[in-house]
Structure formats: C-alpha cells, structure tokens
Amino acid sequence: MNGHVKSMHFQRFMETATTLLSLLLVMAFDSSRTVAASRNQQCGNSVQQSLKLSRLLQKESVDLIKTYKASQGEMSELFCKVPVNNVPDPNISGLEPSEKIASIYSHLQEFFPHFKWVYEQQTDLQLPTSPLLSDLKRFSAGSRNLAVLINNFYQSLFPNVPLPEGGPTTLPPPQNVFQQKVYGCVVLKTFKELLSNVSRELRSLKSQVCRRRTHTNALF
Question: pTM of the predicted model, to two decimals?
C-alpha cells in the first residue's frame, strides 16, 4: 500500500514538474518573441525615418540648386555641367546590408567638408542677406541629421558591430571665382544624386532586412 501511495505521489510530482517546465518554456518563447518584435519595430522605424528624411532632402536639393544658380549671375546654367575633380562619388557600394549601410554613412560623411567649403566660398561671393546662405546652412544640418539616422539604423541591425568611419576627404586646391561657382554647383548636384541612390537603397533594405528578420523570428 505504501509503495502504491509513493508511486502516486511521484507520478503527481512528475506531472507538476512537467507542467511547470512547459509553462517556463512558453514564457521564454513569448519573451523572445516580444524582444524580436521590438527589434523588428525598431528596425522598421529607423529605416522609415531615414527614408522619409532622404526623400525630403532630395526634394529640397532641387530647390537649393535652383537658388544656387539664380545667385551666381551669368552662365549659371552651365556651372553644373562642367567636370570637377575631388567631388565624392555618389554611388553606393557593397553586397551585404551592413556594407551598403556603411557605404551610405561614409558617403554622407565625405560630403560634409565640401558643404562647409561651398558655404565659406559663397559667404565671400554673396551678400550677408542672401537666401542661398541660409538655405545652404539648413540643408547641411538636415544632411547631418540623415547621417545620424543612418547610424541609428545600422545600430538597430548590428548593435555589437561598430560603424566603420570613412577616410579623409580631399578638398579642391585654391580656385578662382568661376571655379568656385562651378565647384559649388557640382557638389550640390552630385549630392542630389547620392540622395536618390540612398532612397533607393533604403527602400530595398527595408523590405530585405526588416521583413527577413520578421520571417526568421516567426519560424522560431
């Protein structure tokens, strides 16, 4: 009789232990899914903010180039068509998402010294009240904000991998007035091309990376 009672107690103990283990596994699974969902949402929010700002800057670059040309006097329509050296490449490189995002970030960083140099040149060429100067400053600030968002997007995907820093940017040698006007126009035009490429890559990354992570998490 005692053996039978012990057997029943042991059986109940095992059933209780199995139930608790199952409950713990379910809680752990739900917790992992919650964390994964949070990361996926962060991924989507980061890329959406970056995409929204890149599109806005792309539209603003069109108006900025028009304002720039209108401020340069005669032959301004030809300035953006003259070839110029030492202007960064607007094309995004890389095969993997991490490489593409890093390329976007480094390209944005490469343009910032050029924006500063164009602004300083135009400060000498324009009146202090010229709307071009305020437009250049505001556009440069928006571009820096885009770089911050790209950095956040990268960190949401690769939190333990530092974002590579770009190399030094080569600025042009001393220029005459005509060369300065051409240089500024080409910098803005090339950056407009970069923004177009950035928007295209971000759209691709949004569907490629964030959705792939959601699908992977759903499998597990």
Answer: 0.78
Query: Residue 167 and residue 72: Cα distance in Å, rounded?
Result: 32
Distance of CA 94 to the CA centre of its chain: 14
- pLDDT at residue 214 is higher than 50: no
What amino acid is encoded at 83 in this protein?
A: P
Amino acid at 164: P
Burial annotation 127-137 (CB, 10 A radius, 16+ → b, else e): eeeeebbebbe
- Provide the H-helix boundaries in the chain: 2-70, 76-79, 97-125, 131-157, 177-205, 211-219
Helix (H, G, I), strand (E, B) or coil at 84: coil
Mean pLDDT of 179-206: 95
pLDDT (tens digit, 9 = 90+) per residue, 2-11?
555 555 555 6
Q: 3-class SS at 71?
A: coil
- Closest to 143 (Cα-Cα) out of 178, 176, 115: 115
Grouping H, G, I as helix, E, B as strand and the rest as coil, residue 130 is: coil
Distance CA 132, CA 124 (A): 12
Q: Residue for token digits 């599109």?
A: 55
- Per-residue b or e along 199-213, where b marks 16 or more CB atoms closer than 10 Å to that residue's CB: bebbeebbeebbeeb
Sorted by sequence, the CB contacts under 8 Å of residue 211 that are 6+ apart come out as none
Q: With helix as H, strand as E and coil as C, how does 152-165 read?
A: HHHHHHCCCCCCCC
